[in-house]
Amino acid sequence: MEVLTIGIAGGTGSGKTTITRRIIKEFGGDVSVVYHDNYYKAHDEMPYSERCKLNYDHPDAFDTELMIEHIKALKQGEKVLCPVYDYTVHNRSDKTTEVRPAKVLIVEGILIFADKQLRDEMDIKLFVDTDADVRILRRIVRDVRDRGRSLESVVNQYLNTVKPMHEQFVEPSKRCADVIIPEGGRNAVALSMVMERIRAYLGKE
Questions:
Q1: What is the pLDDT of residues 3-25, one digit of tens each?
Q2: In 10 A of CB 99, how many CB atoms?
Q3: Which residue among 6, 114, 156, 180 has its CA within the 20 to 30 Å range from the CA of 126?
């Protein structure tokens, strides 16, 4: 089975997931997704207090090798058991989620363009480019509401690791993108172009 692999990168809160959801809504069962966030390395050997101090915005925080293995397996038509990350305890959970192969594979994450081997698995690379003020506000809302974080911890993490790592790794990786989408899911023109490319690939024009 030929698989169209689309990478969707961009800073935290940029709107990557909004675009991913729109594609899934449009093409349903023809799309499968793997999220880089689910491939954070497990740290069972550390207490929670130590895991809180780790830098989760550096490429080394991810088990990217496993993700590449899974992407290759999906391209071969094999299903994979993707790890599940639990943000409330800063660790990989003991659960997995089954991802089935599909004609279109979306790879999503802030740092997916920072690794050449991972990048080389992608046919189309999209970078969602959103203003930093908007991104931090979205992150605060998401982390407090959905991930059980305090406002203070979100702000501290943003200033200490998220912002500097964005400037060091995420922003430079934008140069590897085929298409840069300003304002993410709100950019109707760019989103329409992406949809048309997928529709043409699937022969649904």
A1: 999 999 998 888 898 899 999 99
A2: 21
A3: 156
